[in-house]
Write a structure and sequence with these properties.
CATH class of one domain: Alpha Beta
Low-confidence stretches: 1-52, 1016-1021
Oligomer: single chain
CATH architecture of one domain: 3-Layer(aba) Sandwich
CATH topology of one domain: Aspartate Aminotransferase, domain 2
Distance between the termini: 51 Å
Largest sheet: 7 strands, mixed
CATH superfamily of one domain: Type I PLP-dependent aspartate aminotransferase-like (Major domain)
Strand content: 5-15%
Length: about 1000
């Protein structure tokens, strides 16, 4: 076997320790403290772990690169010290005080033990991956091979500053990724000819569904104007997801021929066409746009960004919304995702547009500063009034696409497009010379649909597979062939040989002169783009590798990520993203697989997916899992759809009431509305628990129409509620199902499970609990686990059979959603095993309780459990400072930047508060450093309260302090520059992280909304 190390791209995560590393003895103590004998492995990992788990082998002969000791932050000495601070003798005692006995797991997870070598598990996954057979793909359908420039791969994709960063809610320490996302938005606006774009959506099919929903809501979401046409020449996976979305919200979706449709019907709110369509054909849709606009309806266009470099942009022929995928801009196919969908529209739709928008504002000194604009649309604010349940994007993938566009520039993109189109032209000339016909005429870009009669499609497909090529089956005697950036003239010749073999029984060579006739790489005149695009300086300056490397470093230096310091975001679980888990995603067998490749070529992916699903079933206590949802919010929506479909199947489709605690994630009510539910909100009691009496009253009141309860556990207030079993029973007794939000699953691992607690369905955030990185705001994966009765209603797929159950509603374009990043969670679980997962939860709980205990003398703790403990997170109450000296939670958040930290979750789930989650990956020294920072900030607040510093001019109100400000000769502050910028010893010792802008002026950005680059980039400043 080839050595794994020699064939893989290695990511290097550099950790800067605050003190000397613990001795190996201390590390062993920590592992032994958490570990006990576990059941034997039930999956393929068994063969790899026998030697390390054999008790007859001396410990010093066992592998030294076990993952658990690298993942868990505190060593044995630190664990003992933290337990002493808490006043308990052991982890077991702490867990007894934290997790209610009624739900505590009595048995052990049926997984292998936690002694897995990182090298061994990587080798095992490599063996699984090699079962995949990667053919050259000519399937297309929105998924294409491409060339990821090595400089982008090395400086961005495998760079922890980019992939471990959080969503840019704290703009002052996120200017790098904000600028990159602004470049992305500008690129989309320029290519589509529209006026505004967002910072990406989850996938192309989701974007289509969001476009339809936005158009419907723009008419007032009226039942009298709820008809939406989808052209039957749209990719089938897009149509299927739109069908799923339309039904629960009362839309009438018609799939048909747009040529024959009567757009004058008053009930029509919009229509979707594809350009080029799924057959590859380009069509002029000006007449469709005019007909829709004449009756107050909107035109939605699904398009290909590479085609738009040569073809007339939809904005120029009347489109109101344009969407698609930027996957072919440097992002691997990855068996379906993650990919950044683009979404652009006219300005009048701006405030209804789903997703995030990056805008330009100014900081307190008047300098240019970027921020997330229109944040009032965020789902945690608008809840059931939200325009969408989307609360994330595909930021990391959007940044790849943006850098790809910058690196190639408009001329480079056109060169790639001309070459792709030229290959398609050459292929068309060849097959026509054999007597085959295409349905496209000359109006195509990269895809041709070929009538191969009398040859059967099965025969042609098999001939091509024998040449390691996959083409698309489109009917008994019809095939599709799509070209991309990686294809060559030799590939065209090989294809033609296969087509000749099918027609003549032998691989007859085509006359080269025939192949060259009229091969120009230029679009037909009727569709040729005449307008320029991407004229901004940023897209025309950086086409050398040296400059590209420097630009990405320039942006990287502006962002604080996990490789700088801990990010203690409550509910967001910013834990270690292990390098050994990250490496496999760029392996050829995982990265370059088309999602619609035949099953015999995808055995490795299917095995890995099966095993990961089995792991997740074991961990959650459920009977089945779907990995299709590609975000937590999509998981919520999918789980509720499964509940509704099940209730319909037993004659209870009238059940549509969803009970949601007011403390729930904002996406919960938004998802419930999307699933066609009516929401009944219930309060929390004084301890932050669900008001059980109110729940019982509401459940009884709606016992005839109760569909579900959405509950988060541990609660969004950071405690294990004692009454959770009773809560579930109340809902079941009144005919409902229990949906559990899995955002806080990190505290359950190995200690309890949704199945034990009594839930019927739970979504999991693999980008939280199971170590998939946040990527500056995406990717994410939000699979759902369900009990047996809900299993038949898990998502299916219109092209690729998924699982063995009947096909449920499809929620994403690809069969297994963002499949390329699933190996991260497979590795994470496989390396940790039963003990390691349990240890992760135990250590997360220990770290949180230790921090809460340290901070309790200085801050009010908002909520605690029955025995005074928190779960894996806790909430600090900042409201008293607003009354005493005018300091609010945002002020504390900005001041933490001066200390080198990202702020905890701010103003949620309660206002005027900070929610802190340290995770299991941080050691005691880092926890203490953060606690010390908070205590020092409290002392600074005391100086404001005493009048030593004025309320409007102090280090907290003026935070963060930039290098430009500190170095300025103008310093009119009642405190020193050192107090402002270097308030703690470690800021000197570890190196200062400088926010590159001062506090951002949000109101200015709202009043002067600019969401794309100007003609001049700030890169040269």
């Amino acid at each position: 076997m080839r050595a794994v190390a020699s064939r893989r791209l290695a990511g290097c995560v550099c950790a800067r320790a605050a003190k000397l590393p613990p001795s190996s003895q201390h590390r062993r103590i920590a592992v032994q403290h958490f570990s006990s004998a576990a059941s034997s492995p039930s999956t393929s990992t068994s063969s790899s772990s026998s030697s390390s788990s054999d008790v007859s082998v001396p410990s010093f002969l066992r592998p030294s690169d076990t993952f658990l000791r690298r993942h868990i932050g505190p060593d044995g000495t630190e664990v003992a010290d933290m337990l002493k601070v808490l006043g308990v003798s052991s982890i077991e005692e702490l867990i007894e005080q934290t997790v209610p006995a009624s739900i505590r797991r009595k048995d052990k997870l049926n997984l292998h033990e936690a002694t897995q070598s990182e090298t061994v598990m990587s080798t095992l996954l490599d063996k699984i991956a090699r079962q995949n057979v990667v053919h050259k793909s000519f399937i297309g359908m929105g998924y294409h091979h491409n060339i990821l420039p090595p400089v982008i791969k090395r400086c961005l994709v495998t760079n922890p500053t980019w992939y471990t960063a959080y969503t840019p809610y704290q703009a002052e320490i996120s200017q790098g990724r904000l600028e990159s996302l602004l470049n992305y938005q500008t690129m989309v606006v320029e290519l589509t000819g529209m006026e505004i774009a967002n910072a990406s959506l989850l996938d192309e099919a989701t974007a289509g569904a969001e476009a339809m929903t936005m158009v419907f809501r723009s008419t007032g979401a009226k039942p009298t104007k709820n008809v939406f046409l989808v052209s039957d020449r749209t990719h089938p996976q897009i149509i299927e997801v739109m069908k799923t979305r339309a039904e629960p919200i009362g839309m009438k979706l018609i799939v048909g021929d747009h040529h024959d449709f009567n757009f004058s019907k008053q009930s029509v709110c919009g229509a979707l066409v594809q350009y080029p369509d799924t057959t590859g054909t380009l069509e002029d849709f000006r007449g469709v746009a005019d007909a829709l606009h004449a009756h107050g309806a909107q035109l939605v266009v699904s398009s290909d960004p590479l085609a738009l470099t040569l073809a007339t942009p939809p904005g120029e022929f009347g489109a109101d919304v344009v969407f698609g995928t930027t996957q072919r801009f440097g992002v691997p196919m990855g068996f379906g995702g993650p990919h950044a969908a683009f979404f652009a529209t006219r300005k009048e739709n701006m405030r209804r547009m789903p997703g995030r928008i990056i805008g330009i504002s100014i900081d307190e000194r008047g300098d240019r500063a970027l921020r997330m604009a229109l944040q009032t649309r965020e789902q945690h604010i608008r809840k059931d009034k939200a325009t969408s349940n989307v609360c994330t994007s595909q930021a990391l993938l959007a940044n790849i696409a943006a850098m790809y566009a910058i690196y190639h520039g408009p001329e480079g993109l056109k060169d790639i497009a001309r070459r792709v189109h030229g290959l398609a032209q050459r292929f068309q000339r060849g097959i026509e010379s054999m007597g085959y016909t295409t349905i496209n005429g000359e109006n195509f870009f990269d895809t041709l649909t070929v009538d191969i009669a009398p040859v059967s499609t099965d025969v042609m497909v098999e001939i091509m597979r024998s040449r390691q090529m996959n083409i698309r089956s489109m009917g008994p005697t019809m095939v599709g062939v799509a070209f991309d950036e990686t294809h060559t003239v030799a590939d065209v010749d090989t294809l033609l040989e296969g087509f000749a073999l099918a027609r003549y029984g032998q691989p007859v060579k085509v006359d080269p002169s025939e192949l060259s006739k009229n091969v120009t790489g230029e679009m037909p005149a009727a569709f040729a783009r005449k307008s320029s695009f991407m004229t901004q300086q940023i897209f025309n300056l950086i086409q050398t590798e040296t400059e590209m490397m420097r630009y990405m470093k320039y942006l990287e230096n502006k962002d604080l990520a996990l490789n700088t310091s801990m990010i203690s975001l409550g509910s967001c679980t910013m834990k270690l993203n292990p390098a050994s888990s990250m490496e496999p995603i760029l392996w050829n067998e995982f990265a370059n697989m088309h999602p619609f490749s035949p099953p015999e070529q995808t055995k490795g992916y299917r095995q890995m997916i099966f095993e990961l699903s089995k792991y997740l079933c074991t961990i959650t206590g459920f009977d089945a899992v779907s990995l299709q949802p590609n975000s937590g919010a999509t998981g919520e929506y999918t789980g509720l759809l499964a509940i509704r479909k099940y209730q319909e199947s037993i004659g209870e489709g009238h059940r549509d009431v969803c009970i949601i605690p007011k403390s729930a994630h904002g996406t919960n009510p938004a998802s419930a509305v999307m699933a066609g539910m009516r929401i009944k909100a219930i309060d929390s009691d004084k301890q932050g628990n669900v008001d059980v009496a109110q729940l019982e009253a509401v459940a009884k009141e709606h016992s005839e129409d109760l569909s579900a309860l959405m509950v988060t556990y541990p609660s969004t207030h950071g405690v294990f509620e004692e009454e959770i079993v009773r809560i579930c029973q109340i809902v079941h007794d009144n005919g409902g199902q229990v949906y559990m939000d899995g955002a806080n699953m990190n505290a359950q691992l190995g200690l309890t499970s949704p199945g034990i607690i009594g839930a019927d369905v739970c979504h999991l955030n693999l980008h939280k609990t199971f170590a998939i990185p946040h990527g500056g705001g995406g990717p994410g994966v939000g699979p759902i686990g369900v009990r047996k009765h809900l299993a038949p209603f898990l998502p299916g797929h219109c092209i690729v059979p998924v699982g063995t159950v009947e096909r449920g509603p499809q929620v994403t374009g690809a069969p297994w959603g963002s499949a390329m990043i699933l190996p991260i969670s497979w590795m994470f679980i496989a390396m940790l095993g039963a003990q390691g997962l349990k240890a992760s939860a135990e250590m997360a709980i220990l770290n949180a309780n230790y921090m809460m205990t340290r901070l309790k003398p200085h801050f009010n703790i908002k909520f605690a459990g029955a025995k005074g403990r928190c779960a894996h997170e806790f909430i600090l109450d900042v409201e008293p400072f607003k009354k005493s000296c005018g300091i609010v939670e945002e002020d504390v958040a900005k001041r933490l930047m001066d200390y080198g930290f990202h702020a905890p979750t701010m103003s949620w789930p309660v206002p005027s508060a900070l929610m802190i989650e340290p995770t299991e990956s941080e050691n005691q020294a880092e926890l203490d450093r953060f606690c010390d920072a908070m205590i020092m900030i409290r002392e600074e607040i005391g100086k404001i309260e005493s009048g030593e510093w004025p309320q409007d001019n102090n280090p907290i109100k003026n935070a963060p302090h930039t290098q430009k400000e500190v170095c300025s000769s103008d310093w009119n502050r009642p405190y020193s520059r050192e107090v402002g910028a270097f308030p703690a010893p470690w800021v000197h010792m570890r190196g200062k992280f400088w926010p590159t802008v001062g506090r951002v002026n949000n109101p200015f950005g709202e009043k002067n909304l600019v969401c794309s680059c100007g003609d001049v980039s700030d890169y040269s400043n």
